[in-house]
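Suppose you are handed a protein chain with no further information: no name, no annotation, nothing but its sequence. What can you learn? This example shows the usual starting point.
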Amino acid sequence: MSLVGLPGGTLDLSGSPVIMAIVNCNDDSFFAGSRSKGEAAADRALRFLDEGAAIIDFGAESSRPGAAYIPAGEEIRRLVPVIESFRKRSGAPVSVDTRKAETGRAVLDAGADIINDISALEDDPLLAPLCAERKAAVVLMHKKGQPQTMQSAPRYDNLLVEVAGYLKKAAARARAAGIAGDRIILDPGIGFGKTVEDNCVLLAHLEEICGSDYPVLVGLSRKSFIGELTKRPVEERLWGTLAANAAALFYGARILRVHDVKETADLIAVWKAIAGSPTKGG
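A reasonable first move is to predict its three-dimensional structure. Written in structure tokens, the prediction is:
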């Protein structure tokens, strides 16, 4: 789908792929350079818009491997003032990374448009009907296990079939709850209960596992599989991230969730020029 419905409008995906910029309002996300709080977080989000982001994704609970669950009240305390500050200065689409209905209600009241749920609306049964009621868009992600243990020897009998089947069921569950099809985005969950090889296979088969009914979001920025492939620490994974995101675009991703907006905007500009060039017969 080329248009994603939002509570107050639409997100147009008919042209270039778009950037979702990560703003982590916490102290424990795996990339320290992504963390900021309060007014500094709102200012960072505005800067990302200037650099080329189309969506800002605020998060208060880290979902890195081994991360601890935090209560909704703490999420709300971290997120709502930032979103309210941002909303005073921008009408750009706001996504919030949460799996809790209590947090979802608070951030939608504050002006959020998209709920980015790593549990694909499974963890909290009240979140799907809330999103339907508020006409929020949703990102439905595949993960195997919980953040605390998901990278402890993940194993699949058939990776592509299992991930594709899960996402298909997640979309059907969302629609059954009343969420319109044009408000659903799918995410294969790179790094969430996957080996390095699993991540590479998923990226090479995005259209196969996600289908053509919903736009595909990929979030792989600076993740550990890039570190394992390049043998570089998180602070030095920008170049590997850009290579992986270029591959994701080639295989059908429409939204790239990233820490490094300016560099990704350059990647998309070059990719679009090459992908849109006329072909010549031999």
